């Protein structure tokens, strides 16, 4: 309700639980309530891996849906073909640094402060960039979200650029580019 009242364009739905909560809230809201028209965009974490699961999620009130990262480019094109007209509601990720892991443990608080949680850590995540180096020498970016959960992103970006023509031919009209810490000169290439 807060996002709808603030005039948000939409909500990125990252779990089936949130999708169910939003559906219930919409049903309980009054006619003309901004919540009823707030666009819901299903993220990859909803794990739509095929046309039947995508159809089910799109039928649950989503305006758009991003398939799971488990689909390769050819599988995403096949999903779009099988969705027919609904393929225009898919949003495929062309460039991303895949999340390697996600944890409730805050590496920032543990290593960059004397505190143990957001209450006493001093929020070092707001002042420091942290990369964890793998045994192969790759520097993986670590980010903290608003809930102080940490996500480690793969240093190597994954690209689906070679599939864009096939996706367009299958009816996909929306593409997403996710940048994490690319400098401007890399991002504009």
Question: What can you tell me about this protein's structure?
Answer:
The chain has 189 residues and is an alpha/beta fold. The chain has 2 domains: 2-97 and 157-187, TIM Barrel; 99-153, no CATH class. 28% of the residues lie in helices and 22% in strands. The strands form 3 sheets. Strands 5-8-7-6 form a 4-stranded antiparallel sheet, with no helix packed on it. Strand 7 and strand 8 (150-153) form a beta hairpin. Helix 3 (51-58) packs across helix 4. The termini are far apart. The mean pLDDT is 92. InterPro entries: Peptidase_U32. It holds the Pfam family Peptidase_U32. This is U32 family peptidase.
**Number of extended strands:** 10
In round numbers, the mean pLDDT is: 92
Distance between the termini: 39 Å
Q: In CATH terms, what is the fold-level topology of the largest domain?
A: TIM Barrel
Q: Could you say which structural class the secondary elements and strand pairing correspond to?
A: alpha/beta
Protein name: U32 family peptidase
Pfam families: Peptidase_U32
């Amino acid at each position: 309700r807060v996002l709808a009242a603030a005039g948000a364009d939409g909500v990125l739905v990252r779990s089936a639980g949130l999708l169910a909560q939003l559906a219930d809230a919409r049903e309980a809201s009054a006619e003309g309530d901004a919540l009823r028209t707030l666009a819901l965009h299903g993220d990859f974490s909803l794990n739509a891996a095929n046309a039947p699961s995508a159809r089910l999620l799109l039928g649950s009130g989503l305006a758009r849906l991003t398939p799971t990262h488990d689909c390769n480019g050819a599988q995403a094109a096949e999903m779009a073909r099988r969705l027919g007209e609904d393929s225009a509601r898919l949003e495929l990720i062309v460039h991303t640094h895949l999340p390697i892991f996600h944890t409730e443990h805050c590496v920032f608080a543990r290593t960059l402060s004397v505190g143990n949680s957001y209450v006493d850590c001093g929020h070092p995540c707001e002042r420091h960039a942290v990369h964890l180096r793998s045994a192969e020498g790759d520097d993986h970016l670590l980010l903290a979200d608003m809930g102080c959960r940490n996500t480690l992103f793969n240093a190597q970006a994954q690209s689906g650029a070679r599939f864009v023509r096939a996706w367009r031919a299958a009816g996909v009209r929306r593409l997403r580019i996710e940048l994490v810490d690319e400098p401007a000169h890399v991002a504009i290439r």
